[in-house]
TrEMBL record:
Pfam families listed in its UniProt record: dnstrm_HI1420
Protein name: Putative addiction module antidote protein
Any GO molecular function: DNA binding
InterPro entries membership: HI1420, Lambda_DNA-bd_dom_sf
Length: 94
């Protein structure tokens, strides 16, 4: 029996591979809720290390934390750069 509570559960604990990250972010996109995707991207960024993401994107460490805080709406440029820093790309399909 698993005694893990909801408070103990951290999505980031399950993002071990690039494929895990891709699948998690794709599932977030599939929800058609921009705020949900931004939150998911923030979770992934924090799990990979915001300092590393900051260095790869050229964006300020503190501003990244603020951009992905609860209820925030980061600029598309920020989202795009973070997605690229994670080794992912956007792909539009019909």
């Amino acid at each position: 029996m698993n005694n893990q509570t909801e408070e103990d559960f951290k999505v980031s604990d399950y993002l071990q591979t690039a494929e895990d990250v891709k699948n998690y972010l794709q599932a977030a996109l599939d929800e058609n809720d921009p705020a949900f995707f931004v939150d998911a991207l923030g979770v992934v960024s924090k799990s990979k290390g915001m300092k590393q993401i900051s260095e790869q994107t050229g964006l300020g460490y503190q501003s990244l934390y603020k951009s992905f805080g609860e209820g925030k709406h980061p600029r598309f440029e920020t989202v795009y750069k973070v997605v690229q820093a994670l080794g992912l790309n956007f792909k539009l399909v019909v």
